[in-house]
Amino acid sequence: MAVSDRDIVILSGGTGGAKLARGIADIAGPERLSVIANTGDDIEIYGAHVSPDPDLVSFWLADTIDERGWGLRDDSFAVMDAMRDLGTEVWFNLGDRDLAWCLERARMLAEGLSPTAALARLNDAIGVRTQVLPMSDDPVRTWVRTGSAGWCAFQEFMIRERASGLIEGLEYRGAEQAHASAEVLDAIAGARTIVIGPSNPLASIAPILAVPGIHEALKAAAAPIVAVSPIVGGQVLKGPTASFMAFAALESSANGVADFYGELLDGILADEDVARLTTLQTDTRMDDASGRARVAEQTLSFAQALAA
Fold first, then answer.
1. Most buried in the list 14, 29, 128, 220, measured by CB within 10 Å?
2. How much is the pLDDT for 239?
3. Cβ distance 245 to 266 under 8 Å?
4. Whole-number pLDDT of residue 287
5. What total of structural domains would you count in the chain?
6. Region at 173 (left for phi over 0; alpha for psi -120 to 50; beta for the rest)
């Protein structure tokens, strides 16, 4: 297989999966990589279609991510400030260039383009050569129920509710009616390595697996499937992963992550040995470019060894 062929697939949520995608693109080449990104967090707001996880992946790959971990570097917020001045409640903050990106997506969707095609055009405009794929072209939305707020869409849970409260319910609404795109299924079928990124298993990866056809395609894939644990030293690296794991009665550890993915995995990278699963014990933190490159290199080498 030529180096330019796409033979690596990552299932990704936001920050953790995006960092790993950037690391793999840096060491293996962006043209070899396809990222299947969660769209359960999507939200339509301000006339724009915001797709946080695919956009985080795209901005990381384009080296335009802001140091705060979301949005575009050096973005301004004049539109949000003006909306506040007009009396609008602005609970979901978007930078001006980020808003333009999401407005352009909404325009393309209104003209009949699929989310996959729209994102491909956006990424082409900023020079991203990696294939970044929404998990489905059909709408799927993650909803969370807490004792204090009841049911709310994921972004409202994360931002308005500050991810607080005991999680009592979790739904991926629309998943049963959704379809995996041909691009997603082709990427999985053509992969020699499949990686589940260090993203929240319940909130970021489970919506992908809930789309009919994706879990089945992964089980049928010839490539080894390895996960990178988002938990280091018993602590979650980012976000409310521990709360979601507790809701699912899973241990907040690499063993809990492995239990959630079950027989789908051939191996896992974690800082602790995982029972009943081939483990590469390593530090999975990716605090800088060298950390991303190290974890990416270890992930690919580990998967290659499992395939041998």
1. 14
2. 75
3. no
4. 93
5. 1
6. beta
Whether the predicted pLDDT of 235 surpasses 90: no
Q: Is the pLDDT of residue 103 over 60?
A: yes
Give the phi and the psi of residue 46 in degrees, each rounded to 5: 60, 25
Q: In this structure, is residue 86 part of a structural domain?
A: no
Domain assignment present for residue 88? The answer is no
**List of residues 6+ apart from 280 with CB closer than 8 A:** 267, 268, 269, 270, 298, 302
| Burial classification of residue 287, based on how many CB atoms lie within 10 Å of its CB (0-12 exposed, 13-18 middle, 19 or more buried) | exposed
Q: Which residue range forms the structural domain that includes residue 288?
A: 8-71+99-307
What pLDDT, on the 0 to 100 scale, is given for residue 109?
Answer: 98
Determine the distance from the C-alpha atom of residue 12 to the mean position of all C-alpha atoms in its chain, rounded to a whole number: 3
Q: What is the CATH number of the domain that holds 18?
A: 3.40.50.10680
pLDDT at 4: 40
For 190-202, write each residue's pLDDT tens digit: 999 999 999 999 9
On whether residue 166 sits in a domain, the answer given is: yes
Instruction: Please give the pLDDT value at position 237.
Output: 67
Q: What percent of the chain has pLDDT over 90?
A: 91
Which whole number is the average pLDDT over 277-296? 96
Mind giving me the DSSP string for the chain?
--TTS--EEEEE-SHHHHHHHHHHHHHH-GGGEEEEE--TT-EEETTEEE-HHHHHHHHHHTT-B-TTSSSBTT---HHHHHHHHTT----S---HHHHHHHHHHHHHHHTT--HHHHHHHHHHHTT--SEEEES-SS--EEEEEETTTEEEEHHIIIIISTT-S-EEEEEEETGGG----HHHHHHHHT-SEEEE-SS-IIIIIHHHHHSTTHHHHHHH-SS-EEEE-SEETTEESSSSHHHHHHHTT--SSHHHHHHHHGGG-SEEEESS--TTS-EEE------SHHHHHHHHHHHHHHHHHHH-
Per the structure block, which two tokens stand in for 51?
């797709």
> Taking a C-beta distance cutoff of 8 angstroms, is the pair 128, 205 a contact?
no
